[in-house]
DNA sequence: TTCCAATTGTACCAATCGATAAAGACTGAT
DNA sequence: ATCAGTCTTTATCGATTGGTACAATTGGAA
């Protein structure tokens, strides 16, 4: 009966989808079981800490993905404009043009955040810092780079909320475009 | 045993707080009972439809509050700038400078929205329309007013997410200030 | 005072919750 | 062939879930 295929990491995508859609409290073990294709035994084998460990693993996985796919490329981009473009492309893909919620942002809003407050804050701090670094390297004044980076990360989160609520993918993409334009303008003025 | 004091409306604030903090699934009847000071009997007397009716009532209450305190004043403001200022003051107060989540925005992100998708979308549409109307009356070009209104509502939602995640009230207020400045600039150019 | 409708407390329901335990099935290495 | 270790199934736990039923109690109208 053992597949030897299953690793802990294989369960994470399904796990993340359930948590994202139903929230921490709403993600029951039956839903999790269905989404991951794993029985209770397997789940508790991979996550002895239970639901809380599953949530922590998902959070770490999402944060890790953003780190590798967005934050680090952002910091290491040769051309600031190319770095920004790459970020926006990945953001649009990841959030499915605003139809997919931000798990970390959503958990930050409710009581779920308490056990994970540091991870959640760290994720956003890292994102802002990476963007700020890029802008500063592009010649943007430090304080302007800081507020601009905040505005962009905040603007993306707002676009996720609004475009999901209105069920409007074009709104998300248009907002990303406007945020990109603001970044370009700041770089051009520098 | 009867108090004869309690009305259905008296339960709404506590109800809203629980739903906001714990989400729909996480808001158990015990939590709701504690927060409202009402037993199961009273709750099901006022809300025969159970949890779902409680949620719908809270949603309608929040939307009604915004309508009366923000949207309508926005539409009827004599001076666009004064209308904007009043909105920002109320927004900052309502969201407690970003420490209080937006119940409607949060529910729009997850599976909870399904039964309430129309109400949630209507809330945001109304907000954007009111702001857009104000800008248009201030002489801002229609398409510019539309995108600007979207950006501001989206920006407020993003600021709630970000400032709550970072536990930073000054970030929320600063973002509101920058959004206000953008609106002023558009009005000045008109 | 009597009575009625509104409100509340209590007990209870089946279903599901998260979690545990133990036995079984499979693997790779010896 | 055997063994240790990995993974899965199944059954089950006590607690809690949302919801119901009903009697007790109340304030106000008659």
UniProtKB/TrEMBL annotation, chains A, B:
Occurrences of domain HTH tetR-type (ranges): 16-58
Entry-linked Gene3D superfamilies: Tetracycline Repressor, domain 2
Keyword flag Metal-binding: no
Keyword field contains DNA-binding: yes
Start and end residues of each Transcriptional regulator LmrA/YxaF-like C-terminal domain: 82-174
Keyword terms of this UniProt record: DNA-binding, Transcription, Transcription regulation
Cited SUPFAM superfamilies: Homeodomain-like, Tetracyclin repressor-like, C-terminal domain
PANTHER family linked: HTH-TYPE TRANSCRIPTIONAL REGULATOR YJDC, TRANSCRIPTIONAL REGULATORY PROTEIN
Protein name: AcrR family transcriptional regulator
Organism, scientific name: Sphingomonas yabuuchiae
Lineage start: Bacteria, Pseudomonadati, Pseudomonadota, Alphaproteobacteria, Sphingomonadales
